[in-house]
Amino acid sequence: MASMSRDRIIFSPLFRVEQFESKIKRGDWYLTREGKWWVKYPTEECRAIIETAYDRLPKQRKFLFFEDAKSDKAKYLQASYFMHKMAVRFKRIFSDLDKSSWLNEKTRIYALGDGLYFGGHSLHLFRHTMAQYYLAATNWSLAYVASLDGWENTEILNKCYGGIPEYIKAQIANSIHVRFDTLNLNSTSMTTTGYSMFCPSIR
Predict the structure, then answer these.
(1) Distance from C-alpha of 135 to C-alpha of 168, rounded to nearest angstrom
(2) What is the pLDDT of residue 3?
(3) Can you tell me the distance from the alpha carbon of 15 to that of 3, in angstroms, rounded to the nearest whole number?
(4) Whole-angstrom Cα distance, residue 150 to residue 18?
(5) What sections of the sequence does the record tag as coiled-coil (predicted)?
(6) Backbone dihedral region of 65: left (phi > 0), alpha (psi from -120 to 50 degrees) or beta?
(7) How many Cα atoms within 13 Å fall on the side-chain side of residue 38?
(8) Where are the domains of the chain?
(9) What is the pLDDT of residue 135?
(10) pTM above 0.70?
(11) Rounded CA gap, 180 and 196, in Å?
């Protein structure tokens, strides 16, 4: 929500946005909501979109997608209404996508819902796909991606955003080669060299 405000988008020297997360209560306040500020570094493609919006919208307008209002409460209502409209549009688009093309099942369910009890959070699809792209780009470094994009710990990132895909785990396992020819299977010497048997060398 906060990145809709011009003063929360920084182009130089590094493109970044300040994002306000109201689900995490840390004593910061923005538009009548308590939460926490995060600094995030979007892609260059996102930068191009924001720059286009800057060029087309009135320079004196504080918010990118709606006119300024007299009170923080009124501003929050405008932001909420805008996000709701976008969520409805995105959900309609996502529902027509080939489900097999989605990054993982957790992402699909979170964006569209389970079809019974959970309606989904379509706007969060971008956060989920971003997490998957950043994880892949960093060789699935949960700690690095969590610190880069605003997760308080790796547990949340791993549990809610898909974590390391099974095929990556399989690739890692298949890349490890055990040298069985170095194992000492003599029952007498196993007492003293048993460590090398249960923790064989890796080449």
Answers:
(1) 11
(2) 61
(3) 12
(4) 10
(5) none
(6) alpha
(7) 19
(8) 1-91, 166-203
(9) 85
(10) no
(11) 10
Q: What is the 3-state secondary structure (H, E, C) of the chain?
A: CHHHEHHHEECCCCCEEEEEECCCCCCEEECCEEEEEEEECCCHHHHHHHHHHHHHCCCCCCECCCCCCCCHHHHHHHHHHHHHHHHHHHHHHHHCCCHHHCCCHHHHHHHHCCCCCCCCCHHHHHHHHHHHHHHHHCCCCHHHHHHHHCCCCHHHHHHHCCCCCHHHHHHHHHCCCECHHHCCCCCCCHHHHHHHHHCCCEC
Residue in this structure with the two tokens 């996102």, named with its chain if needed:
46
Tens-digit pLDDT profile for residues 70-87:
898 888 888 888 888 888
Amino acid (one-letter) located at 20:
F
Distance between CA atoms of residues 104 and 98, nearest Å: 12
Is the previous residue joined to 13 through a cis bond, with omega within 30 degrees of 0?
yes
**CB-based contacts of 180, cutoff 8 Å, min separation 6:** 200
Higher pLDDT, 72 or 21: 72
Tens digit of pLDDT for each residue in 119-172?
Answer: 778 877 777 778 888 888 888 888 888 887 777 788 888 877 766 777 778 887
